[in-house]
Design goal:
Blueprint (H helix, E strand, L loop, with lengths): L10 H8 L3 H13 L5 E2 L5 E2 L2 H16 L4 H12 L9 H83 L2 H5 L3
Antiparallel strand pairs: 1-2
């Protein structure tokens, strides 16, 4: 196979193309390198980016910015989909297979997420039913407590009324003959 020369881009070129800062691009590259991705470096040990790196970084950007994915998780996902870097030997056939694998992987992730959402919805329904049962139990207990309290207050009032009648009767007995006669 003939040597293929790809155009190389600097960090500044790529940060402008992706509309991000140099430091952000550096963080993303470090996250990818931490998980095994390899960038081409020049004699000064600076990263030099090729077209395949741009594709990967654009995909990485979508995961991080649009899907709020953490850098480490996004880098693992990108590396799983696209490979370990510019040094990977690739052919058009492999790239086509990779794209098919990506579509299949996306469908698998989507199906997994949908299943997780269904499970979460079922859990939420069950939790809601339990909360309703708990509220019903609490309401019943409060109703019984209120009835007992009212009953106790009525009994207490009856006892006080009876005691007042007894006290009045005893007071009446203590009154002398003349005070009863003249109602004093």
């Amino acid at each position: 196979m003939d040597d293929i020369h790809e155009k190389a881009y600097s960090t500044k070129d790529l940060s402008l193309a992706l509309a991000i800062g140099d430091s952000t691009l550096r963080k993303w590259c470090l996250a990818l390198e931490k998980n095994g991705y390899g960038f081409i470096r020049n004699e000064q040990k600076n990263r030099v980016f090729v077209e395949s790196d741009i594709v990967i970084l654009k995909h990485f950007q979508g995961l991080v910015k649009q899907h709020n994915m953490q850098l480490d998780n996004a880098s693992k996902l990108v590396i799983d989909r696209f490979g370990k870097g510019s040094f990977d030997a690739r052919t058009d056939v492999v790239l086509v297979k990779k794209e098919e694998e990506i579509a299949q992987s996306d469908n698998e992730i989507l199906n997994t997420l949908l299943e997780h959402i269904r499970t979460q919805e079922e859990f939420n329904k069950e939790l809601l039913q339990r909360l309703e049962q708990q509220q019903k139990y609490i309401d019943e207990r409060l109703e019984k407590r209120d009835q007992k309290l009212i009953e106790s207050l009525r009994e207490n009032q009856e006892v006080k009324k009876t005691l007042l009648q007894i006290a009045a009767a005893q007071e009446e007995k203590k009154k002398g003959f003349f005070s009863r006669l003249f109602n004093k």
